[in-house]
C-alpha cells in the first residue's frame, strides 16, 4: 500500500494568486491563508515517503511470507490461505462508509491516526495469543481462528481510512509529478522490503524458542514501526476535506524539484458557496462512463490476479517444501527488481501515459503464472530459475501497480474524490475476494489439476481482463 469531507461553508474570502508550491492544498486553516511554500510541500512528500517505509516494515510482519509461514506451522488448510487473502479485499466494501465518515471530519490527519492506530494496535492481541499458545492456554486451531479475526478487524479499520488517505495524498502530489514521485516512493519501500524481509525471515527461522515465538517477537517489532509510520503523518500538510469539496481546484503545475524547480499556476473557483458543500450526486457518478470502464477492467483484473497469487507461497512452502529462508531471499530479489525498475516505469508513465504501459506489461504479467510449470525444488531451480522468476515478477509487477494507481487518481474528479476511490476499492475488493475464494476451492480439488491448474486458469482470466482497458481514456492524453 495509504481523505475527504462535507459541511456548509459561508462567507469565504479566497485570495486567488499564483502559488510557489507543488500544488494547492486546502487545509484546516482559513482559505485566505491557504498558501504553502515549496518547503512545506517538500516536507510533506518526504514525510509521506518515511510513512511508507515504516508502514512497509509493519506490512512485512503482518502479511506475506512471514504470516504464511506462521499459518503453515499451525497446519492451516488452503481454504484458510484463501480466506486470509480475501479478507483484506472483501472489507473494502466498508470503504464507501469510511469515505462518507471522513467527509464529515475536518482533518485527514486526525482521521488517519484514529482508524490506522486502532488497526495496527489490534495485532498486539495476536502477540498475546502467541504467548498464550506457548504456555498451552490455546491450541493451534484456536490460534488460526484468532489470526483470521485479527486480520478481519484490522483490515476493516484500515478500510475505513483507505479512501480518505488516498485522497489526501492525491491533493499533496502534483499531477505531472505523480509518476516520478510514486516511483521514488515505491523504490524506497522496495529497498525496505529488500533489506527487511530476509532479516525478519532469518530471525523467525532461527529464533531459539522456535519459529512461532520468533514470529511473535518480529510481529511486535513490526507493530512498533507501524506506529512510528503514523507519527510521520504529523509532518504532512493537513487537509480539511470540507474545504477540499467546497472548491474545485484546477491546477496547472510545471515542475522540477529535488524532484526540481517549481512554478505553479493555480486557479481556484468558488463552487456555489451559498449552497455550501453538496453531497456526491450518484447520477453524476453514473454518467462518468470512463470511470466505470476502468472499474470493469480493475475488478476483473483483481479477480483474475487473485485466483492464484495468494497460493504461490503455499506452493513453495508446502508443495515444493522449500525453506522459508530461501523464500524470503526470493522476496528480497523481487523487491530489488522492483526498486530498480519502479523509477524507470514512473518516468516512462509521465512521458507515454499509464494505459500503454498497462496493456503491454499486463500481457506479460498475464502469462507469468505459466512460468511456474516445470519449477521444482532441484538445486538448479532453487539457485537459478526461482531467483530469475522472482526478479522478473518484481520488474513487471511494479509497473502494473504504479500505473493502476496513477490512472485511478487521474480519472477521478477532485471533488468528493475519496468516494470514487471507495467505490473502486469496494468493487475491486469484492471481485478480488471472490478470486481468492474460488482459488482456494480449486486448489483443493484434484479435478482442476491442483495449484498448477489454478495458475493456468489465472493466466487466461488475466488476458481477458485487459480487454476493457483498451477503452479507458486517460486524463491529460490525446484520447481524453
Characteristic terms for this protein:
disordered N terminus, Growth Hormone, Chain: A, 18 helices, globular
Description:
The longest helix is centred in the N-terminal third of the chain and has 33 residues, at 140-172. Helix 15 (354-367) packs antiparallel against helix 18. The chain has one domain: MFS general substrate transporter like domains (Growth Hormone, Chain: A, Up-down Bundle). A two-stranded antiparallel ribbon has the order 1-2. By secondary structure, the protein is mainly α. The protein contains 18 helices and 2 strands.
Please provide a brief summary of the model:
With 480 residues, the protein is mainly alpha-helical. The protein is 67% helix and 5% strand. It has 18 helices and two strands.
Amino acid at each position: 500500500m495509504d481523505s475527504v469531507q462535507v459541511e456548509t461553508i459561508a462567507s469565504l474570502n479566497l485570495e486567488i494568486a499564483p502559488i510557489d508550491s507543488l500544488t494547492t492544498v486546502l487545509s484546516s486553516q482559513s482559505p485566505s491563508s491557504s498558501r504553502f511554500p515549496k518547503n512545506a510541500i517538500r516536507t510533506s512528500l518526504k514525510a509521506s515517503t518515511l510513512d511508507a517505509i515504516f508502514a512497509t516494515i509493519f506490512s512485512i510482519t503482518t502479511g506475506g511470507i512471514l504470516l504464511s509461514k506462521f499459518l503453515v506451522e499451525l497446519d492451516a488448510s488452503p481454504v484458510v490461505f484463501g480466506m486470509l487473502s480475501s479478507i483484506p479485499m472483501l472489507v473494502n466494501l466498508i470503504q464507501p462508509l469510511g469515505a462518507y465518515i471522513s467527509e464529515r471530519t475536518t482533518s485527514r490527519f486526525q482521521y488517519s491516526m484514529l482508524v490506522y492506530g486502532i488497526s495496527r494496535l489490534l495485532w498486539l492481541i495476536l502477540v498475546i495469543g502467541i504467548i498464550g499458545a506457548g504456555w498451552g492456554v490455546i491450541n493451534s486451531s484456536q490460534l488460526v481462528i484468532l489470526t483470521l479475526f485479527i486480520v478481519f478487524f484490522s483490515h476493516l479499520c484500515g478500510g475505513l481510512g483507505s479512501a480518505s488517505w488516498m485522497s489526501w495524498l492525491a491533493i499533496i502530489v502534483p499531477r505531472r509529478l505523480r509518476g516520478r514521485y510514486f516511483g521514488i516512493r515505491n523504490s524506497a519501500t522496495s529497498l525496505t522490503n529488500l533489506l527487511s524481509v530476509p532479516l525478519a525471515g532469518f530471525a523467525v527461522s532461527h529464533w531459539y524458542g522456535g519459529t512461532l515465538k520468533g514470529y511473535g517477537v518480529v510481529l511486535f517489532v513490526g507493530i512498533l514501526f507501524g506506529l512510528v509510520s503514523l507519527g510521520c503523518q504529523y509532518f504532512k500538510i493537513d487537509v480539511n476535506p470540507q474545504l477540499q469539496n467546497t472548491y474545485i481546484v484546477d491546477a496547472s503545475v510545471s515542475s522540477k524539484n529535488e524532484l526540481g524547480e517549481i512554478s505553479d499556476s493555480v486557479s481556484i473557483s468558488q463552487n456555489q458557496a451559498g449552497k455550501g458543500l453538496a453531497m456526491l450526486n450518484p447520477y453524476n457518478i453514473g454518467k462518468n462512463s470512463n470511470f466505470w470502464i476502468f472499474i470493469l477492467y480493475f475488478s476483473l483484473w483483481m479477480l483474475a490476479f487473485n485466483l492464484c497469487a495468494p497460493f504461490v507461497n503455499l506452493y513453495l512452502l508446502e508443495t515444493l517444501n522449500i525453506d522459508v529462508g530461501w523464500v524470503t531471499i526470493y522476496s528480497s530479489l523481487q523487491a530489488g527488481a522492483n526498486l530498480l525498475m519502479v523509477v524507470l516505469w514512473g518516468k516512462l508513465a509521465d512521458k507515454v501515459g499509464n494505459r500503454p504501459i498497462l496493456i503491454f506489461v499486463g500481457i506479460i504479467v498475464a502469462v507469468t503464472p505459466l512460468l511456474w510449470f516445470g519449477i521444482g525444488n532441484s538445486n538448479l531451480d532453487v539457485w537459478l530459475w526461482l531467483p530469475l522468476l522472482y526478479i522478473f515478477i518484481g520488474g513487471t509487477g511494479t509497473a502494473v501497480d504504479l500505473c493502476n494507481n496513477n490512472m485511478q487518481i487521474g480519472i477521478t474528479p477532485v471533488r468528493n474524490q475519496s468516494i470514487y476511490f471507495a467505490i473502486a476499492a469496494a468493487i475491486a475488493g469484492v471481485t478480488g475476494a471472490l478470486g481468492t475464494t474460488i482459488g482456494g476451492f480449486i486448489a483443493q480439488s484434484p479435478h482442476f489439476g491442483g495449484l498448477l491448474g489454478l495458475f493456468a486458469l489465472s493466466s487466461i482470466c488475466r488476458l481477458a481482463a485487459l480487454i476493457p482497458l483498451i477503452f479507458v481514456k486517460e486524463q491529460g492524453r490525446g484520447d481524453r
